Amino acid sequence: MSSTFHAGTDANYLRQGGSDTTRAFEAALGALEGGTALGFASGMAAIAAVIEGVPVGSVVVAPEMCYAGTSMLLDEQERLGRITVRRREISDSASVLDALSEDPAPALLWIESPTNPMMGIADLPVLIEAAHAVGALAAVDSTWNSPMVVRPIDYGADLVVHSATKYLAGHSDVLMGALICRTAEVWTAMKARRDLAGGVPGTLETFMTLRGMRTLAIRMDRAQANADELAKRLDAHPAVTKVLYAGLPDDPGHERVTRLHDGYGAMISFLVRDQEAADALCGRVKLITHATSLGGVESLIERRARYAVDAANGTPDCLLRFSVGIEDVEDLWEDLRQALTD
Predict the structure, then answer these.
(1) Is 15 a catalytic residue?
(2) Residue stretches of the chain with pLDDT short of 70
(3) pLDDT at position 19, please?
(4) Within this chain, do residues 175 and 193 fall inside the same structural domain, yes or no?
């Protein structure tokens, strides 16, 4: 774990931008995603490397609804006069294609799928092909999926983004991010941005994420099975007004996810009567933790519109975002059932 080496060695931590542990993590994640990976100190460091790496004056096409950190970064880059952002509903392919075809041509298409927290599903091959047709890079934030659910590079994505804090590490005890690049040219550019901006991850964080990835497939199988069952039960509960989960046959994204993904994920959003009912549910849960974040072995729930950026982007004030963990499904349902009772 030392960051200092004898002069002259090719293994210099600062020269190569990471340790042998970092490179082991990158090799493993690259193999899972089908590209060449780079570890970052956080998910936001990885996101910033891509968005802040476009030339000044560029146009970026991005989702109307997305992760709050990404949304705020896009807004700040636009406020500084560095970029122009064209926001579209990412699940509306026609609208995104229109944005890509406008002059001036965009430099970057930023895709989040499913969108956070409204669960919009992008038609990845259609949007990525259209981005390439106008000379834009296509980046996909696939944090909510993990490579166990979808591999965007298989559909031509130039970059895949992960907050490795979430499903990859899986135990809510790491702060780390990652990029996976389809080409050596993009990898070289992103590595330079990471190293120059000080975004290299620590050795301990990288080790813990790599260790967590050893159980990724098992964790995702269990969490997705739990989410599938809980979504069905929530959908039938009289206190729930709407469930957003692509695994439900009547969900707008069901056909697209079935066609493009290898699973429906372990994130559920659902709506209750009003803000008061949503806050009350968060206060009543016992096994499920009322907290931000997602993708760990424990289940978490929160009302996302309590954050100003989510509310401003249109998140309903009665929406609850539910990260389903790997606990016993009957225990989880009993906790939800009692919390939904007025």
Answers:
(1) yes
(2) 1-16, 342
(3) 86
(4) yes
Residue 1 maps to a domain: no
Burial class (CB in 10 A: 0-12, 13-18, 19+), 108: buried
Among the listed residues 123, 141, 158, 251, the single catalytic one is: 141
Q: Is 141 an annotated catalytic residue?
A: yes
Does the active-site annotation cover 193? Answer: no
Selected catalytic residue, list 166, 194, 219, 303: 166
Q: Do residue 188 and residue 230 come from a single domain?
A: no
* pTM listed for this prediction: 0.95
Residue bearing tokens 């993904």 = 261
Check if 286 is active-site: no
**270 and 137 together in one domain:** no
Catalytic one of 67, 167, 245, 264: 67
What is the residue whose two structure tokens read 């996302």?
304
Q: Looking at the structure, tell me whether residues 221 and 207 fall in a common domain.
A: no
Domain that holds residue 34: 13-213
Complete edge-to-edge strand list for the sheet that includes strand 240-244: 240-244, 267-272, 319-323, 300-303, 289-290
